[in-house]
Design goal:
With about 140 residues, the protein is of the alpha+beta class. It has four helices and four strands. It has helices at about 5-15, 25-30, 45-65, 70-95; strands at about 35-45, 95-105, 110-120, 125-135. α3 (about 45-65) packs antiparallel against α4 (about 70-95).
């Protein structure tokens, strides 16, 4: 099945907005469509946790089987897509506490990372979403 970057981006978004209990079911649904997916929770002060968010995305990608264990090429793709997604939410979240989820999807040469977060400000919560895409070699 030929999937494009839009299909993979939609899967990453769906993983990032899903509840923890829904993840395994979604992973099975996407696997049948030839899309590998994973998700991981994030939280804390955005300025202090940026490197932790990138690290969590990388570890989740490897544990989920989306990328091989020892490959700088694939590590760089996940890191780059995660940074791109972070940049899209950073202006809104700078200096504030956030809680949310990273959704990651891969099919063929497409890898997408989505960050969906709630940004705490007193008793109000703002919502932000960022998406990064990288093209990687097919395995």
């Amino acid at each position: 099945m030929d999937l494009d970057s839009m299909d993979v981006a939609k899967a990453a978004i769906e993983m990032s907005i899903s509840k923890r209990e829904e993840e395994k079911e979604l992973e099975d649904i996407f696997r049948k469509k030839d899309i590998l997916t994973t998700a991981v929770n994030i939280g804390g002060n955005i300025n202090n946790t940026m490197s932790k968010i990138i690290e969590r995305a990388l570890v989740a990608s490897k544990k989920g089987g989306l990328i091989p264990e020892n490959s700088h090429l694939y590590d760089g793709a996940v890191i780059g897509a995660t940074k791109e997604a972070l940049i899209q939410v950073l202006q809104k979240a700078s200096g504030l506490n956030v809680g949310g989820k990273i959704g990651i999807a891969r099919s063929g040469e497409h890898l997408c990372v989505t960050i969906f977060m709630s940004i705490g400000l007193l008793h109000l919560n703002e919502i932000a979403i960022g998406l990064g895409h990288r093209a990687i070699p097919k395995e």
